[in-house]
Design brief:
By secondary structure, the chain is of the alpha+beta class. It is built from ten helices and 18 strands. The longest helix is centred in the middle third of the chain and has 26 residues.
Length: 392
């Protein structure tokens, strides 16, 4: 089974039914979460436009006076009303509806705004989301807290909301009052000539080096919590992780990780410098070098063994179940490939449009157990929308 649909049997069923043109028709809506900056009216406009465009599209199918257009658009409006874009830091959502239900997929990256009506669901964004456009991770570790950033090849995305750990100050507030009192004996207690206990008695202290030692132990406990919070997010993705912080803290943190994705070098920044802009400036060249060095695309291309280049050749290979790894150009993976603010207009995708051809191609690839990737910027596909490494 492809990793893209592993542990998601419902998505697997949608793909299977969609490729057979069963269970539909489907109405799919890809809608992005705009950068609101406290202005929720942007979301209200985007939501209103989506519902209106759905109704207008279906009026062309069912007729202006039919009940279906308003019924379908109303269902989408009701679901969109439940979203809170101010509280949720995702990139957007994909809604896939049929007569008897609706699936909602939260997307890490910002999707291209699109509406699709047809016998096949539009699942391209949910299949290519997240790991495909993730070029690497940066963990910014400060003395008091840690922040996690995801690099997509263009900008940093703050993913700190996904971390569950106790900050250093939270640990200090909850520690026991006796926690900074140390007890020790200089030697074992033993009977003396008078029948009493010989040797030194218990000694207590809470000052000097012992306090410093305790703070170091607490610091490492805090960093261990950070490491345990980060590991489930990155483990198994293959996307490199770089630690940023002062050398001592970064070194302690790296020692606590059990991730093959962890990179040896670190970014030497601290304090206020651990912000997205400075981290992006420092991390971009490092992550680009890591993700392009020895990349499998160096050995692929037109005429290379076990390679299919171009949509037609890749389509044929997908229909035969021969694709091991499918590489897509960044502009056809269903996501916004720029830093522009929200697009308040929606593309209505027809059956023969390029996004829907790629949608079907990707669905066939993952159904047959293949992988889908979007190459790093430095290796971007420029002469073709798709390139595939074949099984045979």
């Amino acid at each position: 089974m492809s990793a893209h649909i592993a542990n998601n049997p419902h998505l697997e069923t949608l793909i299977e039914n969609g490729l057979k043109a069963e269970g539909g028709p489907y109405l799919s809506l890809a809608i992005q979460r705009p950068r609101l900056a406290g202005n929720v009216q942007k979301w209200d406009i985007l939501k209103k436009n989506a519902v209106q465009d759905i109704e207008e599209l279906l009026e062309e199918t069912f007729g202006e006076h039919a009940d279906a257009p308003r019924a379908w658009s109303g269902r989408f409006g009701d679901v969109l009303d439940t979203f809170d874009p101010l509280a949720n830091q995702c990139g957007g959502w994909l809604l896939v509806a049929r007569e008897d239900g609706m699936d909602v997929f939260e997307l890490q990256d910002t999707p291209q705004s699109a509406i699709v009506w047809g016998d096949t669901p539009y699942l391209l964004p949910v299949i290519t989301d997240g790991i495909q456009r993730t070029r690497g991770w940066v963990l910014a570790v400060g003395q008091q807290q840690a922040d996690l950033f995801r690099w997509d090849g263009v900008m940093m995305h703050d993913e700190s909301h996904r971390l569950d750990y106790r900050s250093y100050d939270e640990m200090r507030e909850t520690r026991e009052p006796e926690g900074n009192v140390n007890l020790h004996t200089n030697s074992a207690l033993r009977p003396n000539a008078n029948g009493g206990a010989g040797g030194s008695g218990a000694q207590f202290h809470a000052a000097g080096a012992a306090v410093d030692d305790y703070d170091e132990v607490q610091m490492k406990d805090y960093l261990n919590g950070v490491a345990k919070a980060v590991e489930p997010i990155i483990a198994g993705t293959g996307n490199p992780l770089i630690v940023a912080g002062d050398p001592k803290t970064a070194g302690w943190t790296k020692d606590l990780f059990e991730l093959h994705e962890l990179h040896d070098d670190h970014i030497d920044l601290a304090g206020d410098s651990l912000n997205a802009d400075r981290l992006a400036e420092a991390a971009a060249p490092m992550l680009t070098a890591i993700t392009t060095e020895g990349h499998e695309l160096h050995d692929m291309g037109e005429g290379a063994p076990l390679t299919a280049a171009g949509l037609s050749a890749v389509d044929e290979a997908a229909n035969e179940g021969r694709i091991r790894t499918l590489y897509l150009a960044a502009d056809v993976d269903g996501f916004q490939d720029s830093n522009e603010d929200e697009r308040i207009t929606f593309q209505v995708l027809g059956a023969d449009t390029l996004p829907l051809r790629v949608n079907t191609l990707v669905m066939r690839t993952v159904q047959a157990g293949g992988e889908v990737k979007v190459p790093p910027t430095a290796l971007a596909l420029t002469d073709t929308e798709a390139l595939a490494r074949l099984r045979y």
